[in-house]
Automatic annotation (TrEMBL), chain A:
Signal peptide: none annotated. Residues 1-21 are annotated as: Disordered. Residues 91-282 form the ABC transmembrane type-1 domain. Belongs to the binding-protein-dependent transport system permease family. It comes from Winogradskya humida. It comes from the Bacteria. This is ABC transporter permease. Its main location: membrane. The chain crosses the membrane at residues 30-55, 91-113, 125-147, 159-178, 216-238, 258-282. The keyword Transit peptide does not apply.
UniProtKB/TrEMBL annotation, chain B:
The chain crosses the membrane at residues 12-33, 64-94, 114-132, 162-181, 221-241, 268-290. Signal peptide: none annotated. The keyword Acetylation does not apply. It is found in: Cell membrane. Pfam families: BPD_transp_1. Residues 69-289 form the ABC transmembrane type-1 domain. PROSITE patterns: ABC_TM1. This is ABC transporter permease. It comes from Winogradskya humida. Keywords: Cell membrane, Membrane, Transmembrane, Transmembrane helix, Transport. It is a multi-pass membrane protein.
Length: 296, 298
């Protein structure tokens, strides 16, 4: 992509921001806003419904239906559900897996992208094609051999297998994305590091990583959330109760006869909350933008 | 100070070693194994029996296989085409209209809210929507009843006529925040003066959208289109939790079809053939995208 130089001759004639804003004050403004708000409501409505019902007692639900506010706030459904599936344990499993994958995945992506984007090693196009394809492969085409191999290595039903697999899968995406960012890494900075006598290793950690930190933060966030939400491989690899992650635990519970509407809401709520929490924490990194590492 | 031999790009190859080794173990070897097994009859234990292309000819005559790929086409519309288009317009509106008129904060707030479904675990999405779409006690039918549209209520996920469309609706809801985040971060690259210059030239919103916005975020546009289309081809979790491929296979997709053969029917050879075909399709699609992307860069 090309960086477009701002036409500097317009500087003197640019209107002050207030005047520019005024131009937009048309009736259309309210239509736009109304559409945006309606969409917003559509997006959050399902979550609101869950929240309303998670705090109801089954009898309250039975008599007032899903849309009424709870008669009184009851935590019983949530507590029962939490204890029934030992939710603390699932949370810990998910946290360990996602955190490990996010850290290792970013690390692996950085190493790959350093060689491909900045180092431009020979055959880089083919490596890039490989990482793109690897990222695109359906997990179904890998799952049976991985299942078979992990059984042979006694890593089946162990978080380690899932961590290794997802680190590689996520870093395929990370490599692909980060390489395109590093391709436009300012050469001046690399040259300056070279003049200062920094080797490749030092340049990577002292120059490249700090400068691209916003992009790495976004990658970390994506890796964490994606891994947290992964379902297919954990469903197959983490079969025993004590190893299950949150999504697997919730997914296999579905259709359980013991799950009435309030228990279902409670389970959805405890599934949402951690995701929501991470989202709020990570929100700041998301705002910095995925290509922020490409310095203008 | 170390003395560097060779050209300016030597010595970087070392950094690829961990990535290459890990990829070999987790991706290349299993991929080759699956392709190999697809030419055999195997139930997962004992020795696979070589049967040549039998699995593929069987696939070719399997209606369920064709149905699963037909469903995928509709899911590409729901997961890639609609979210990309909607996301592009919304990102532009948020960046260049809401941020200016109401302030940056509001633009960010909207963006975050739209992105919310993406951070929910698939299983939770499933729990929520299965319940909302439930025919007797689901919230959607109750709302329809309340506003006097009771005749529209359906067994959204349980009726083969509507199940796939319901899944599509859920997928649009799930997906469209992702393009918004990607596009808006791409828009941060755009020099505001470019917009102001366009303003001065009397360009309307649509013109600016087409000539500046879309052009500037073309890299993101490709990334989003590639990733969402592939995500649609690979969809598994949502179908697993929403419908389990049913009712009567109305929502079966290739990955679920393969999963069933691997782990429920122990037809590993056949499952491998399905996965291999899916993989080839995805790679072909990726090559097409990559070509387009490279051409637009020149």
């Amino acid at each position: 992509m090309s960086v477009i130089a701002a036409p500097s001759q317009t500087d003197s004639t640019v209107e002050p921001p207030a005047a520019t804003a005024k131009k937009h004050r048309r009736p259309g403004r309210w239509v736009v806003l109304a559409v945006l708000l309606a969409l917003l409501l559509l997006v959050v409505a399902p979550m609101l419904v869950i929240m309303v019902n998670a705090f109801k007692t089954p009898s309250d639900y039975a008599s007032n239906g899903p849309l009424a506010l709870p008669e009184s706030i009851s935590f019983q459904g949530i507590i029962d559900f939490w204890n029934r599936i030992d939710f603390s344990r699932k949370l810990l499993n998910s946290l360990v897996t996602s955190l490990s994958v996010a850290v290792l995945g970013v690390l692996l992506s950085v190493l790959n992208a350093y060689a491909l984007g900045i180092g431009r090693v020979r055959g880089r196009i083919w490596f890039l094609v490989f990482f793109l394809v690897a990222n695109l492969l359906p997990q179904e085409v890998l799952v049976y051999p991985l299942y078979y191999i992990s059984k042979e290595l006694h890593l089946y039903d162990s978080p380690i297998s899932v961590i290794i697999i997802f680190t590689v899968i996520q870093s395929a995406f990370g490599t692909y994305l980060l390489t395109s960012v590093y391709e436009e890494f300012p050469r001046e900075l690399l040259d300056a590091a070279e003049v200062d006598g920094a080797g490749r290793w030092r340049t990577l950690w002292r120059v490249v990583v700090p400068v691209s930190r916003p992009t790495l933060a976004v990658l970390f966030t994506f890796f964490f959330i994606w891994t947290w939400n992964e379902f297919f491989l954990p469903l197959i690899f983490l079969v025993s109760n004590e190893n299950q992650t949150v999504p697997v635990a919730l997914g296999v519970l579905q259709g359980d006869r013991l799950m009435d509407a309030t228990a279902t809401s409670a389970s959805a709520l405890v599934g949402i909350l951690p995701a929501l929490l991470f989202f709020l924490i990570f929100q700041r990194t998301l705002t910095r933008g995925i290509t922020a590492g490409a310095i203008k | 100070m170390s003395v560097r031999k060779g050209g300016r790009n030597s010595g970087y190859g070392l950094y690829l070693i961990p990535g290459v080794l890990a990829s070999l173990a987790v991706i290349v070897v299993p991929l080759v194994m699956t392709v190999g097994v697809s030419f055999t009859k195997w139930n997962g234990v004992g020795d696979p029996k070589w049967i040549g292309f039998d699995n593929y000819t069987r696939l070719f005559h399997d209606d369920l296989f064709w149905a699963s790929f037909g469903h995928i086409l509709l899911l590409i519309v729901a997961m890639a085409v609609i979210p990309t288009f909607v996301g592009l317009v919304l990102a532009a509106v948020l960046f260049d209209y809401v941020a200016k008129v109401l302030g940056d904060r509001w633009a960010k707030l909207f963006r975050s809210a739209y992105y919310l479904p993406q951070v929910l675990p698939v299983a939770v999405t499933g729990i929520i929507w299965v319940w909302i779409l439930h025919p007797s006690f689901g919230a959607l039918n109750q709302i329809l009843d309340t506003v006097g549209l009771g005749s529209l209520s359906r067994d959204w996920l349980g009726d083969p006529k509507y199940a796939l469309f319901s899944v599509m609706g859920v997928m649009i809801w799930f997906q469209f925040g992702y393009p918004i985040v990607m596009f808006m971060s791409g828009l941060q690259r755009v020099d505001p003066e470019l917009y102001e210059a366009a303003d001065l030239d009397g360009a309307g919103w649509w013109q600016r959208f087409r000539h500046i916005t879309v052009k500037m975020i073309r890299p993101e546009l490709y990334v989003v289109l590639v990733t969402t289309t592939i995500a649609a081809l690979k969809i598994f979790g949502q179908v697993f939790v929403l419908t389990g491929g049913g009712p009567s296979n109305a929502t079966i997709v290739p990955s679920y079809f393969a999963y069933k053969n691997f782990f429920e029917k122990a037809q590993v050879g056949y499952g491998s053939a399905i996965s291999t075909v899916l993989t080839v399709m995805i790679i072909v699609l990726a090559i097409i995208f990559l070509r387009l992307q490279n051409r637009s860069r020149v």
